[in-house]
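We both want to read discrete structure tokens more fluently, so let's practise on a single case. Would you supply a protein for us yourself, any chain you care to pick? Would you write everything just below, so we can both look at the same thing?
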Amino acid sequence: MNASRPNKMVWTVLGLILLAAGGAGAQDGSLSADWIEQIQSGFTMDAHGRAMYNSITNNDIQSLALNRQLLRRHNDFFSDKVKVKGITNQKSSGRCWLFASLNSLRPAVIAKHKLGSFEFSQNYLSFWDKMEKANTFLQYMIDFRDRDLMDREMVMILQGEPGDGGYWETFADLVQKYGVVPQAVMPETHSSENTRTMNNLLYQKLRSDAVKLHTMHRAGQDVGQLLAAKKQMLAEVYRLLVINLGEPPRQFTWRYKSKADDADEKDRDVDKEDENDEDDEGREQNEPDDPNEPDAIDTTDTDETREITTTPQRFFQEFVGVDLNDYVNVFNDTTKEFGRLYRIRMSRNMYEGRDIRYVNAEIEVLKDAAIRSIQDGVPLLFAADVSHDQSAEHGIMADGLYDYESIFGIPIQLTKAQRALYRGSVRNHGMALVGVDLQAGRPLKWRVENSWGSARGNSGYWTMYDNWFDLHVYNIVVHKKYLPEEILKITEQPAVVVPPWDPML
């Protein structure tokens, strides 16, 4: 006999009683005294419930729910890995998208210039991202000056913080407009690594400015006067950001050291990135800007030590040399039709920039493209919901990692689409895919480079099992050469425009 059947019968009878009760609670939707009495009378603390009560009231739920059978089967073997160098750390900030995007470009730069290590300045792009967000917010206040403050789009803008978040399109827009710099040229500050107070100050300042702009409009001042006021407001934002983050360079001189060819060959033969990722820190040195230097790259070689003087834009064009227009944003958005191109309106950080624009495809399309990229030695950015079944202690992402149903005896069952549509899931973290473990040609698990520092996960890396990929990965950003022709053709379609409150935002 199935041991669960009596429990089901009890709950069925209780449900019929509640439906037949016909009291005030059943009619007006309130939790009536009659309903509470029936629920309490129908509850029994059985042996399992007492054991769980004793355990959970004295222990962490996740520790108790951790699936030890899954943990015993776990291993960190990967059939294909991208050669990477060094784990980054976004600290107490929401800049994962910047870290993951820059990290996906980093291995090619290291290989191209034979560097011992290299890291882009996330602080540099974060500075300009906040300037762009401030401008977009203030410009919307001007554009929507005649709208009611209860207008849905106005509420969405006012509730949105000028925080740290962003997407691939934002990253591409920022890099193409402002370029990039090495980390040594604009290093991290306390505020860049701990952004809450700075963001709150910016939040309050911009809303104060919004009140001023709307007051000016009601007083009869024209758009030209509002734009002039906005310019002064942005100058004040710039000052606030410089004091917190430092001033971004317009031109810089940077020295670096390349490996000798024989050392480079040896390094290719032995993959020691996990042990030696941090060993080459300090090879980058920052020299103060010289205003007399030409606005172009000037390279001097001395015993494998090189020095360049350039601008952030030219540094990206010539030192990095990647065309960001060659990358495609591919989603597995199960709330919408596959095989279509979508654009999320008002999802840009930059006023003149691009909204999120994606090809929607079956999950296998994302996996096949990711495998091709990894096997070619090219990491790729992806975004997922890390709220579910992931452990920073063990560095694992796996469906069923925590067995809550066995502890509480209640079902929790939602499809990927249902979680998104009912706002129980959102793309909340960007990372880089740097490895895959293939068995019989199909992925068993994936290697993830995170940006939470080397003290978390497996020295900063996570193992993402393929069933977690199915449920919680929403998109990848991959070079177009790894995608089939039918997917590339979709990028040429007119985009289906969806509102800014879409689940994929």
Observations:
- The two ends are 48 Å apart (CA to CA).
- Residues 1-14, 16-25, 262-296 have pLDDT under 50 and may be disordered.
